[in-house]
Amino acid sequence: MKLKPKKDLIKEALTKQIAGIIPSREALQKVLESGKKLTIYWGIDPTAPDIHLGHSTNLFVLRRFQRLGHKIIGLVGDYTARIGDPSGRTTIRIPLTRLQIAKNLKNYKSQILKILDPKKTIFKFNSEWWEKMKASDLLMLDSLVTHQQIIERDMFQKRIADKNPISEMEIQYPLLQGYDSVALKTDVEVGGTDQFFNMLMGRQFSKTLLRKEKFVITTPLLENPKTGKKLMSKSEGNYISMNNDPNKMYGKVMALADDVIIVCFKFCTDLEEDSVRRTELRLKSGENPRNLKSELAYEIVKIYHGEKKAKEAEREFNQVFQKHELPKKIPEVILKAGEYNIVDLLTATGMAPSKSEARRLVIGKAVRAGGKLIDDFKDTIKVSPGLVVQVGKRHFKKIK
Amino acid sequence: MKLKPKKDLIKEALTKQIAGIIPSREALQKVLESGKKLTIYWGIDPTAPDIHLGHSTNLFVLRRFQRLGHKIIGLVGDYTARIGDPSGRTTIRIPLTRLQIAKNLKNYKSQILKILDPKKTIFKFNSEWWEKMKASDLLMLDSLVTHQQIIERDMFQKRIADKNPISEMEIQYPLLQGYDSVALKTDVEVGGTDQFFNMLMGRQFSKTLLRKEKFVITTPLLENPKTGKKLMSKSEGNYISMNNDPNKMYGKVMALADDVIIVCFKFCTDLEEDSVRRTELRLKSGENPRNLKSELAYEIVKIYHGEKKAKEAEREFNQVFQKHELPKKIPEVILKAGEYNIVDLLTATGMAPSKSEARRLVIGKAVRAGGKLIDDFKDTIKVSPGLVVQVGKRHFKKIK
Q1: CB under 8 Å to B40, separation ≥6 — which residues?
Q2: Is the pLDDT confidence value at A345 over 60?
Q3: Helix ranges (DSSP H) in chain B
């Protein structure tokens, strides 16, 4: 089946949120304009229970190709995750167990399908072919690459220079990922720039084993432009999940550094490029970053939870943090009425994990009871139903 | 079943023709003296149709352990041969096909059993387990070693320094050979010093996967003590095969350099150490090396073909080379009687592969016809039945 080539949309699909195309943008454009239906894949490792906003760029890029009529495959690296991509890591990764992977996989699809079209997205798992592969199959792949070629990869070079060990299993990782391109007979692979080496391996294997020219599209990583550090990393745990509830998601965006507002507008939303440029100008001309960040937070929550929930999250955030009012919904805890030492009260309500931690919170002026600051840990509190205890800015419990 | 420890024989088995023992000679001695029956293996790659005298050292060592009552396994690396050990090689080895391997395997057993006891020697093939191994099994082994550890191997270091490519398949070779020790649950591995790295890998895997301390016995390589170069190499083709017929074997030994007489006595025969020492003294005191070489040649032919054939080979050699007489048996070639230019005669009898090569042989004074030196390539020879044509010292054809 031939697709109708839509020149404007093709141009957008080949430029927006894209870092580079191998062998060239022009070559891929030619194929797209020919009307040929392509198979495009994006791989993701189930190394954490959810997907973060750093991944959304890939999904926006894929959605554009999906809207052009191409076949989109989300490849879950459930086999390779047991090995672990050495990308950017300085130490040997601890391989995941099957159980951990199964747990992490649970919510993957629903998160991805918040952006991609559920009716048009195919999911594959690389255990499907890798579990069947024999040692001799892997050795055949090994025969196609040289040690020198693998070791060229920047993160391997870094580990060697730093005298950090590299497991031979990690050395095999690019070959495994590369073979996925062959198994999927894919025309295009989309991935972050940190996947460039692995994606080129797939390009090489496709050429050798399928006589096929696989295109590679890289997307920018979500980084703080001031420090160059990754904004979100699954393996390091600091990320905003697509699965976060609206309030948490809104709050986490508001907690981001002002330096990253524009990159987040560019890569975590799919707003028109013109609109992002206007926001950038407002920031440069001195507008309070907080205004722009709330627009960002609203936009992001809208993507994953819809407009209504975005409005509610905005209202809630403003009520609690800006007007210092109590939030609408406070979790309740059952406690017998009576007099309680503040330390005992904090541990009994589960707001402090230990007495010593409770004391530290009180000394640090983080604790309020009935709206009143409590700064002496010998203080006694009269507890009765309806009393609100607060720790920090966002942690509330109401006595039932 | 406990073995009767024979202290004298154990001492000989642990020293004669041995380069080193890991972790120590004393540790292995202790186990041997305990009377425990051990499984001892020696691996050989079927990379040529026959086994050469450089391998005989290992077989003499194994025979001593066999006579002590231990279980001896000859492991044919029919699977790993498809990959090729990178030992000492500076370029990527061309993997063997199954067909080549099957062909090479054909005469292996009979050669090995000229030294080992046919009733007490077990043969195994590592395809037996490796063909069943899954990619994940190989990856498990990969996870047990670091890239840094593998790359330490001297021949890898040399190739890297010389910017010669190393295939990733070759990098896996030591892991495959190492796993053989696990599959065989072996107590001891015997091999040349060039196998030290691979044998230590097997020791490491045995420790990790079987909680077993595998001993490693290395034997010296057959080298020219003056140049340090290998005397025989299957992969380079310059070797004396255990399968060579008595005359060829005798002649090849006689063609060895005088410098290597003593190492060949030490490692290619199983003569008493005292007797070898006496030979060394005779050489040092100025005796004609040719005398000693004929003793060596006689001794070696005796090992593989028995005393009678050794005597015959000696007689034949003396007749042809020392008394300049014609050999007893000359291969015959049918040729129409008549006048032949010497160059045409050499190519027609198959004694030169081309006319230009035939001319070179004539110019180099290597050609005789009917006993007469022919040194002009324009010469014409009268050919009739019974005429003997000779190239060099040992290449004869008789016209039929």
Answers
A1: B62, B65, B70, B71, B72, B73, B186, B187, B188, B189, B190
A2: yes
A3: 7-13, 25-33, 56-67, 98-105, 108-112, 127-130, 135-143, 147-151, 154-161, 168-183, 196-205, 246-254, 261-268, 273-284, 289-317, 342-348, 355-363
Q: Name residues whose C-beta falls within 8 Å of residue A242's C-beta, 6 or more positions apart in sequence.
A: A50, A51, A52, A53, A55, A56, A111, A114, A304
Please tell me the predicted confidence (pLDDT) of residue B158.
87
Q: Å from A234 to nearest chain B CA?
A: 23
Q: Report the pLDDT value the prediction gives residue B237, as an integer from 0 to 100.
A: 64
Quote the CA–CA distance of B199 and B208 in Å, as a whole number.
14
On chain A, the residues whose CB falls within 8 A of the CB of B138 are 135, 138-139
Q: How do residues A87-117 score in pLDDT, each as one tens digit?
A: 545 455 556 677 777 777 777 888 899 999 9
Determine the angle formed by the axes of helices A135-143 and B168-183, rounding to 10 degrees: 150
Q: What is the ipTM of this complex?
A: 0.75
Please name the residues between 159 and 178 in chain B that touch chain A, using a CB distance below 8 Å: 160, 163, 165-172, 175
In chain B, which stretches have pLDDT less than 50? 88, 90
Q: Is A135 on the interface with B (CB under 8 A)?
A: yes
Q: Which helix (H) or strand (E) holds A176?
A: helix A168-183
Strand residues in chain A grouped as ranges (E): 20-22, 39-44, 71-76, 121-125, 188-192, 215-219, 332-333, 338-341, 367-369, 372-373, 380-383, 388-391, 395-399
How far is A223 from A381, CA to CA, in rounded Å?
A: 46
Check: CB of residue B357 under 8 Å from CB of residue B318: no
User: What pLDDT is stored for residue A92 in this prediction?
Assistant: 53
The bridge status of strand B338-341 relative to strand B380-383 is: antiparallel
pLDDT at B394: 73
- Shortest alpha-carbon distance between residue B125 and chain A (Å): 16
Pick from B95, B143, B165: CB nearest A169: B143
CB B186 within 8 A of CB B73: yes
Mention the CATH class of domain B246-322: mainly alpha
- May I ask the CATH architecture of the domain B7-219? 3-Layer(aba) Sandwich (3.40)
pLDDT single digits (tens) B224-249: 999 888 888 766 667 899 989 999 99
Q: Which of A140, A151, A168 sits opposite B142 (nearest CB)?
A: A168
Contact B29, B90 (CB under 8 A): no
Q: Residue A384: pLDDT band by 50, 70, 90 thresholds?
A: confident
Question: Structure tokens of B130?
Answer: 């490796």
Is residue B269 a contact partner of residue B303, using CB atoms and an 8 Å limit? yes
pLDDT of residue B322: 67
B332-399: CATH topology is 3.10.290
Contact B147 A133 (CB under 8 A): no
Q: Quote the minimal CA–CA distance from A172 to chain B in Å.
A: 8
Residues within 8 A of B (CB atoms), A 64-123 only: 83, 95
Q: Which of A135, A166, A175 sits opposite B133 (nearest CB)?
A: A135
Distance between first and last Cα of chain A: 64
Domain residue spans of chain A: 7-219, 246-322, 332-399
Q: Which of B91, B168, B169, B179 to mutate to test the interface with A (most CBs of A within 10 A)?
A: B168
Is B332-399 the same fold as B7-219? no
A207-217 pLDDT tens trace? 999 999 999 99
A-B contacts at Cβ under 8 angstroms: 101
User: What pLDDT, on the 0 to 100 scale, is given for residue A279?
Assistant: 93
Contact A143 B171 (CB under 8 A): no
pLDDT digit string, tens, across residues A5-26: 788 999 999 999 999 999 999 9
Interface contact A147-B131, CB threshold 8 A: no
Phi then psi for residue B85, to 5 deg, are -70, 130
- The SS3 assignment for B383 reads strand
